[in-house]
Batch of 2 targets.
Target 1
Amino acid sequence: MAIKEKKARREGWKTTKSERLNYYIGDLGRTLEGYIVTAFMTLFLLFQGIDLVKISAAILVVKIIDSVDDVLFGFLIDKLNIKNSRLLGRLAGEGKYLPWYRATFFLFPIFTVIFFLMPQAAPEAVKLTWFTVTYLLYDFSYTLVEVPMNSMIVSLTDNVDERNTILQFKGILTGIFTILAGIVWMLLISEHVGFSMRSVAIVSSVIFFIMMLPLATKVKEHNAELKNAESGKDTEHYSFRDMLGCIKTNKFILFILLSTLIYAGLQTGSALGTYASFYLYGDSMILVIPIAIAFIPQTIAQLNTERLCRRFGKKRVFMVCGLVGAVLYSLIYFTGYHNFAVITLLLVLQAAPGNVSNIAKTFFTPDTIEYTRYKTGKDCSGIFFSLNAFIKKLTESISASLGLFILGLSEWVAVKADSFEELAAMNVTQTQGALDTLWFVYMLIPAIGTILGVVVMAFYNLNESDVKLMAQCNAGEITRDECEAKLSRKY
């Protein structure tokens, strides 16, 4: 992968190879720390024997509360200079977004561990209270890390091609290691090994904390300040009204957020894969087979995402690959879960276009931020990525709550166990109606969400060549007049 990136490097890149490597590792640690809760949360609560409808309600309430602080925190990141803080100033260091990361990232694994220490023998009311309090702390620490991390892609470099390459490799590494981590975690908690989710989550959190450390000391932001804002504009200190003005100016970000809201809000099966595998096929590991087969072709496709986008355009790659993946996803549901061979084939075929589309979509947000910086002279990266985090957490609550609520309306039998080994020994049988509902939640609702999410992005029309000109203007490489003269249209 290092060879591939070296070949892709072009003139004008600002970051060093070492900085990019530490950024990738730190982001990967942060992503996997969040992913272990995403992967285990629904299963963990299901294993606590809590009523599914109560679980769905608790998840929805907690996520809605937490989602609000994402937007407020994004405003604070763009508004405040943490380096001036007496308490956190020494930890903060230099930069715009890295100071927030350095001062707060260690809270993330701490609160993750506390979340998984829920006492299994406690009454249901105590478990719901434990979940509410610890999940709010976990989500707050997630925000403290995620918003600066995602905003950093704009402040690391002003070179658009460099950003796209960084985002591509970041997306590829995330895709590869979330798959590998998911497989390892599923194996460890499966009936074949028998570890508890609690022990796996705690050990993993220690590893991810170590991965996040180098980013705090060995990466520099090379594009932390706007260098060509209109004279008289204050780019560092501005009001909440200015923030709202930035959002109002950027209609393009609204299409991205709406697409994400629809797509992710209907991903009801994302946290139920292991459960579906266990109850539909009698083995919690069987759905690993299509994932393993698709791994290599999927990775090759992801490696070529940035190249495809340069040749055909980000939007075209996203739309075509997204629709192909969504159609294949839909066919899986109508095939029925009994025909495992056909399902495996369709899942393998869907993996490459689906993942290329997901990586291509990450290229849009930095473009919209450059557009806003160009139009307003304000650096609102924090608020935009906070909005993205708000939508992400809101949709996680909607998808998890919706899936569990629908499953709870069926004849699903609640169980209390600490691992799949224990669950297998209990030999709990679900009715056919409950299994059909699980298949509906696991496959059809996500397919509909994927199609609708792609369709919304048809209305996104920010020209990529114009973004490159705006980025050069924002970085002071060309004047505003030179930029205006070369733009394809008036913005």
Target 2
Amino acid sequence: MLWSRYNTLFQLQRFGGFLYNALTNTLLELDSAHYEAMERFRDSNLEPDAATESDFLTLLRRNKAMVESGEESRLLLARQYQRHALCFDTSRLGLTICPTLQCNFRCPYCFEHSQSESSAMSPESVDRLICFIKGYKDIRHLSIAWYGGEPLLAFDIICDITEKIKALDVDFEGAGMVTNGYLLDSAKIARLNDLKINSIQITLDGSEEVNDTRRVLAGGGPTFQRILANVDALMNSNYEGTCAIRVNIDKTNQDQFFALRAALRERFKGKKLTVYAGHVNTSIDHHYDHNCSLDLQEWTEFTFNTHRQGGHQARGSFYPSGNLDSICVATTHQGFVVGPEGELYQCWEDVGKPDMVIGTIHENDPITNPALQASYSIGTDAYNDPDCRECTVLPICGGGCANKRLRAKQFGEEGTEFCSPYRDNLTQHLEAYIDAFRSKEICESVLSLGLDKKETRGYRDISPEKKRAGEEGRPAITAIAQEV
């Protein structure tokens, strides 16, 4: 038996010794004797001796801390097969639809270059879109994300498309919307349930003063108060869905996040509203000042700071739980971004870029650039990358953002970071989880909840049950979190 390349053996001053395996996403707590046995195994490949409990050896083998020669390669191949199966699943169609690329804001970090584009999806393009959907005869599930530009500038088109989709013989699972929230008035809010829009993302970038220097109207002018009033109206309406407030973070406003989050949580206590931070990370050719962006290490530290400053994350929230198969709309065979002219993209960060168009709904054979489509689904597959296959966190990373990986690996864009924060900060994440795990145990003991402390025998599995590799469920084709 061999030491797994995906093992991380570490000591924490406050908590003792631990063994983590990324292939099974398992964390074992070890006493000093078992920890030292693992050190010998790691350093000299000396298997734990016969005196070690057979149950412990069984646990190590079951969780792939001990593996046979070639076993990990076979397991990675199976994982890659699973990724391909999800990428080429024909039972689902996921569409991000941009009814217009026009935007009423001029945010300096926006990755789109077409905010002044005034065209909206024509009736002909709407009809072609419905024909495009009907062409996927095997689909059983359809999901939609409304995007832009600012989609509420074309609200009538959203209503038209939705009514036509609802008339189709397909399971329309519902829709999400990414909007700046400025036009989300009471009349539109009243239509949301009927439009099956069950999740909305709105962005505020700090206090009123800070937000109104970053998220400004196209003709100049503040936006904060009107957006907040619209969120008030949304949360106090009969809207059945959820709202996520995104705060786009860089060096200029990172300290604003905590006060804004606290204020919004208090204001909307008991409502279906969450507040989270988004990473402003523009492309190398973007005009935004790159000195403002947080690099991967700085972003990781910011994430931990949100916890230290009262993030109230649920137990296990820092435990590795990334997109294990690296599946998103960009990598799926039946996931598309549809522009207002009917042009098709693989990723919504490509919207408005003619050289990133993969096809059009106006053609009988919609895919006109299959090489670019393949570059996303196959070319960004980290399991084909020798460097990634040697990385100790590949099984919990999956290769990172497909768009950034494509730009860095295939287009040669320098300075684009796509690796998972687990690569350099795995033990930090695990320590935060262990801290929460131990704190909960202490509280349960003090409160005498009748939970007997289990005999550990010098070792125990303390992984969160729902975080085990392979138990995350099928990833959604569409998402609703972008730097807009």
